[in-house]
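Quick one:
INPUT:
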């Protein structure tokens, strides 16, 4: 089993510090959440990190790629708690904000299927406001089309993950990449 590190900050970061930490991860994926216009609802987006102008504009988010995962949670205006997952034994000195670093055992990569079936596979596609060639997936329990930034239009989309374990228990899940169901 490989070794990895779960790093957490117990002190708050400003939006400016958050943006500086996110900048080197621009070639990653981004999962971001924000409050929607309807109270109690959240808008969720899964996008390429290069399209993420200002991570501090989101209540919660995660940048993920093959080497580093960075997750943040807004605590109050311009104050964020941040955690990081990495297998690197040499943490960048700019990451000295992490005051809790845990060594973890890292599992092999495994797929997790994401919600939705591509619209081209729906029997009654006339009820969907999307063209079968568009990257749109539908899950009846989620009241909006799902858009995953993957090539082509696989029937299902999966998230490739690695679990980080402390004492045999899963402590965190490292998101590696998105893939079509036929990949790998």
């Amino acid at each position: 089993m490989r070794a990895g590190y779960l790093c957490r900050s117990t002190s708050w970061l400003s939006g400016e510090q958050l943006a500086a930490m996110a900048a080197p991860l621009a070639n990653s994926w981004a999962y971001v959440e924000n409050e929607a216009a309807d109270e109690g609802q959240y808008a969720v987006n899964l996008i390429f990190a290069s399209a993420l102008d200002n991570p501090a504009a989101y209540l919660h988010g995660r940048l993920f790629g093959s080497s580093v995962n960075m997750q943040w949670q807004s605590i109050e205006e311009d104050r964020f708690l941040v955690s990081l997952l990495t297998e690197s034994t040499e943490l960048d000195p700019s990451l000295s904000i992490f005051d809790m670093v845990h060594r973890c055992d890292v599992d092999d990569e495994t797929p997790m299927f994401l919600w939705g079936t591509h619209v081209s596979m729906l029997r009654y596609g006339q009820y969907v406001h999307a063209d079968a060639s568009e990257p749109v997936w539908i899950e009846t329990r989620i009241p909006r089309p799902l858009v995953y930034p993957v090539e082509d239009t696989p029937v299902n989309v999966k998230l490739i993950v690695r679990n980080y374990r402390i004492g045999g228990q899963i402590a965190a899940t490292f998101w590696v990449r998105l893939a079509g169901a036929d990949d790998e």
